[in-house]
Amino acid sequence: MNDTGKAYFLKILNAGFRLDDRKSDEFRKLKIIRGCSKTAEGSAELFLGETHVIAGVKFSIEVPFPDTPDEGVLMVNVEQSPVASPEFEEGPPTIEAIELSRVVDRGLRESKAIDLKGLCITPGEKVWSVSVDIVTLNDDGNLLDACGLAALAALQDARFPKVVDGKPDYHELTEEKLVLSELPIPVTVYKYGESLIIDPLHEEEVLADARLTVTTLSSGEICALQKGFDGTLSIDSIDKMIELSLKKSKELRSELKKELN
Asked: What pTM was computed for the model?
């Protein structure tokens, strides 16, 4: 969008409107389909408006890291598939893909939602490793929140495989589910001048001055923060962004629980 287009967008935004007539604090329709993969131990396909991602969970038995011999392993990887956007290309992960992975990983890790010690089989020898792989299928804005929510939905769906002779049998899943003690919900707030919005369309997202991803627990405690784009944020702006994130995280947490039932 050129400078004229940006000026027009800012004008309608300041008047309280969005490109798709949503309110500034309104998410697009969220749809989650769990169990969409027959080869993953847990999976979820997530639609946030036209933004579309899929997440899968794989379990494996590994040797623990030397500095955490009694803890399991958690890994998150996001792949920006070229089918999702003409801006994405085949090859090594981009800076954007690495950031997506780290933001999702940090929210899960810092929330202590997964009891890593509970994944220990034999201290110093065997632990469960939990890998969360996320693939973007269509980018129409707000991949940060979409990927974080898809990861949570897939983890809610995950069941451990049967272990035969010390090895996972991926052809037979048990009824034992991965326990999540928390649902760390990411909500990214985008700043345009003095205006704040959430869940932007791609056309809106690229015009933002700055963004702040706030991942919170059900208690309202913040477990992760990630600032993005070049614009600066004042203390007052940060306070308002956190307040908006907390408000919307309650709604999204209810959606995740409702979708599970």
From this structure: 0.94
What's the pLDDT tens digit per position in 178-206?
999 999 999 999 999 889 999 999 999 99
DSSP the chain: --HHHHHHHHHHHHTT--TTS--TT-PPPEEEEES--SSSSEEEEEEETTEEEEEEEEEEEEPPPTT-TT--EEEEEEEE-TTT-TT--SSSPPHHHHHHHHHHHHHHHHHT-S-SGGGEEETTTEEEEEEEEEEEEE-SS-HHHHHHHHHHHHHHH-EEEEEETTEEEEEEEEEEEPP-S---EEEEEEEETTEEEES--HHHHTT-SEEEEEEE-TTS-EEEEEEESS----HHHHHHHHHHHHHHHHHHHHHHHHHH-
All domains of the chain in start order, with CATH: 21-260 (3.30.230.70)
